[in-house]
Structures are given as structure tokens and as C-alpha cells.
Amino acid sequence: MTDLDRFDRQLLNLVQQDAALTAGQLAERVSLSPSAIQRRLKRLREQGVILRHVAVLEPARVGRAMSFVAALQVESERADRMAALRAWIAAEPRVQQAFYVTGEADFILVVTAVDAEAYEALMARLLADNPNVRRYTTSVAMAVLKRGLELPVPLDP
């Protein structure tokens, strides 16, 4: 684990809330100079603590109002079959999140789609392209109560 001091932790919490904050704005909130902020952010990116900067969109405004949670079960956990399925999932832009899990399902996917028909077509393609998928179940998100990827970073370890 990377050694993070209190300033790093403050920065991480702030940039998770708004990655568009300038070094000057961050400097005011963290009590460091803008150049120190820039050096720290560069180091955190180089160390792989900050993976990327993204914009969070309103799904309904870009035609992606529906969200689905799919639980996949596989036939075999052979390395080559699992690698092929993982690659398919990683390459599919409509899969927003994917988890390899324990329990009855092997994978949990969070999927966005224009409508139920588009989701069904995607899942039909998943099955056609990945014969290792035994079955899947779907839950339709009726409402989004929380959406985000922020990780709580305590100021003191």
C-alpha cells in the first residue's frame, strides 16, 4: 500500500468529489501551494492511486435511463473459458461494473440500456458469444438511490 499522508488523503477525497477542481482551488482547501498540489497529484497518478479522471453523466439525458443487475452462472471455471468471458465483459461498454463473486452467481454485472429490448439483445449476444455462461438472472433497477465510485479515505490511517 502506498504511504499516504493527511494531505494526500484530503486531496483524494476532494478530487473524488470533483476532479475538475484546479490546483489553486485544491490548495485553498488543503493548505498547500498549487505547485505542491500538482506534484502530489502527479505522484498519486504515477503510483496508481488515482487511476483516471471521469465525468459522471445523467443516464436519462443521454438515453440510458434503464439499469439492470445481472447475475451470471458459468458452466466451467476453466482458465481459458473464464478469460474469454472476462474479456467480453471488459470490452462491452454497456457493462458499467462487473464483479467476480462468491455464492450462487459467479459474476454480477451492472448494465445500462435504452430499454428492456436492448438489454435482452445484449444478453442474447452474451450467451451466443460465451457458451460458458450457463444462465443468468436479471433485476431491473426501479430507482437509483445512489450512484458513485467514491471511496471513503479516512484522514488518519
Automatic annotation (TrEMBL):
Give the protein's recorded name: Lrp/AsnC family transcriptional regulator
> What Pfam families would the database entry show?
AsnC_trans_reg (PF01037), HTH_24 (PF13412)
Keywords assigned by UniProt, alphabetized: DNA-binding, Transcription, Transcription regulation
Gene3D superfamilies given for it? 3.30.70.920, Winged helix-like DNA-binding domain superfamily/Winged helix DNA-binding domain
GO BP terms:
regulation of DNA-templated transcription; response to amino acid
GO terms for molecular function, please? sequence-specific DNA binding
> Locate the HTH asnC-type domain: which residues?
4-65
